[in-house]
Prior knowledge:
Blueprint: H1 8-19, H2 23-37, H3 43-56
Helix pairs in contact: 1-3, 2-3
Amino acid sequence: MRLARIPQRELAAHAAAALRKSPEQLAATVKALGRGMGSPWGADQKYAALLAWLLLAGGA
Length: 60
């Protein structure tokens, strides 16, 4: 198993490069995911969703 460490402050930039989307596109998509989830959908949940997306895409 491989371990990847991505500091929180670098996650958006890393994901944008790996997923070939702008940080704005990523933020909009993660925000849209939260609409269907209900509360709470704060920063922690957004970071977790973005990281999961990145891992599923094999970009970490």
